[in-house]
Amino acid sequence: MRLDGKKIFGDQTKNQFIKYKNLRLEKEDRIMILCLVTKLKAVQGVTFIETIIKRINLQKEIFILNIELGLETVIP
Prior knowledge:
Layout: E1 7-9, E2 12-13, H1 14-39, H2 46-69
Antiparallel strand pairs: 1-2
């Protein structure tokens, strides 16, 4: 991690790292919204199951992004 040079995290430049962070935050926000909707029981039936599947897929995408970057990943 060097800020004076162009490398910031592994082989990534500053712009690529910021792009990754924005993508990750966007996915985490979606996960939080989906969790809120399911906890409030605002959806039922097939929509409830689709919501849970979407949340799992988003979490998997974040996990894969972290592995690709070499970040520390925790498997709950």
